[in-house]
Design a protein that fits this description.
The complex is a heterodimer of chains A (114) and B (111). By secondary structure, chain A is mostly beta strands. Chain A has no helices and 11 strands. In chain A, strands 2, 4, 5, 6, 9, 10 and 11 form a 7-stranded mixed beta sheet that branches. A 4-stranded antiparallel beta sheet of chain A has the order 1-3-8-7, with no helix packed on it. The radius of gyration of chain A is 13 Å and the shape is globular. In chain B, strands 2, 4, 5, 9, 10 and 11 form a 6-stranded mixed beta sheet that branches. In chain B, strands 1-3-8-7-6 form a 5-stranded antiparallel beta sheet, with no helix packed on it. The chains are: A mainly beta (114), B mainly beta (111).
Chain lengths: 114, 111
């Protein structure tokens, strides 16, 4: 069964450092997303990406965040200067088409900022 | 008002019990509705979509009431493996499949 894969599973970084979280979406999917979940809180939408550009982003997704699809398979989330409050589980997701189709989630990257 | 609101639980039930979860959403123009399941420190996984006519998948039944902006999930004959957090998820109007998650309702099924 195809799946979304994320690396690394756990990343520890110092405050102020840049981190890149990587994702390989399901191969025939066209829509890609990043969500985050702070420990004990709900899953929150960060950004959606289609046709090599951001299609929608939330208030959380400020100038410190960027996304990129550098090649045909990877989808990355970069946080330029991490803050303590960026510590969370980051989930990548992908889906085949826009409306009413299931979004498949990766297993997540746990980011710890110290 | 929160976009998607759920009772956080926990619901502690014995095996074999029937349990119901409720959810309300604030945007009346929301288009699609789902129940996801999340195990501890794992990714959300789709349990079922929710249709206006109601739908059933084995022991799970989902209902949608658009007039009341209310979604429900009924689990019959609970199993130990049903222990998880159940997330009510709504797709708002427009957007590119952006999903709005409720905070989840925790279910613990005990022997």
């Amino acid at each position: 069964e195809p799946e979304v894969t994320q690396t690394p599973s756990h990343q520890v970084t110092q405050m102020g450092q840049e981190v890149i979280l990587r994702c390989v979406p399901i191969s025939n999917h066209l829509y890609f997303y990043w969500y985050r979940q702070i420990l004990g809180q709900k899953v929150e939408f960060l950004v959606s990406f289609y046709n090599n550009e951001i299609s929608e982003k939330s208030e959380i997704f400020d100038d410190q965040f960027s996304v990129e699809r550098p090649d045909g398979s990877n989808f990355t989330l970069k946080i330029r200067s991490t803050k303590l409050e960026d510590s969370a589980m980051y989930f990548c997701a992908s889906s085949r088409a826009e409306a009413n189709t299931e979004a498949f989630f990766g297993q997540g990257t746990r980011l710890t900022v110290v | 008002r929160k976009e998607v609101e759920q009772d956080p639980g926990p619901f502690n039930v014995p095996e074999g019990a029937t349990v119901a979860f409720n959810c309300t959403y604030s945007n009346s123009a929301s288009q699609s509705f789902f129940w996801y399941r999340q195990d501890c420190r794992k990714e959300p996984k789709l349990l079922m979509s929710v249709y206006s006519s109601g739908n059933e998948d084995g022991r799970f039944t989902a209902q949608l009431n658009r007039a009341s902006q209310y979604i429900s999930l009924l689990i019959r004959d609970s199993k130990l493996s049903d222990s998880a957090t159940y997330l009510c998820v709504v797709k708002p109007p427009g957007g590119y499949n952006k999903l709005i998650f409720g905070a989840g309702t925790r279910l613990a099924v005990h022997p």
